[in-house]
Amino acid sequence: MTNIADNLKAIHQDIINACNNANRSSATVSLLAVSKTKPISLIQQAYDAGQRHFGENYVQETVDKVQQLAHLTDITWHFIGPIQSNKTRLIAENVAWVHSIDRLKTAKRLNEQRDSNIIPLNVCLQVNISGEESKSGATIDEIAELAEFINNCANLTLRGLMAIPAKGNDETTRQSFRKMQTLFNQLQHQYPSVDTLSMGMSNDMNIAIDCGSSMIRVGTAIFGARD
Question: Collapsing DSSP states into helix, strand and coil, what is residue 78?
Fold first, then answer.
């Protein structure tokens, strides 16, 4: 049986070690538990062990989990998967964060569909940093226009950038993360609300943290392999 509390403790220690190696405070890196395909019971275990931020990839699964765990009022839901135009309303109505905006059309719909009576939706722009044709994400050249648009949206708050680099060796991964760090620093200089660089998973979190990541996304190492 997966011991989620022990897994979380081990990952937090890994974050501390990586931050020490990078001469950073571990307080500058947060953990997003990727709970896609995992049952409510395991999410509850992670919550009981102190985890509060959870990431989901599929819209209907996200909505179902948000509703079933609505009694946990301090849980924070992040949508990190591809966004279909016909699903933006469900996203706008149910989560606190979206990490995967890569088109103006998507940002416009989310802004229009977010209830103005609740806090604005926190937004990270997904960057296709490796230029893969098969992968979602805006190009580096498209980020400036996207960021400016979102910064002027009443119901969205621009928080930062997210990326999933192409699989490769440590050096190519580091190069991609350094590009992200440069882009993030430029965006942060321009927009005071920008504070989140969402990059790095269990297999490359050390490199990501060394390159300035402020949020790592971990699934299997917390919840175990997918069924």
Answer: strand
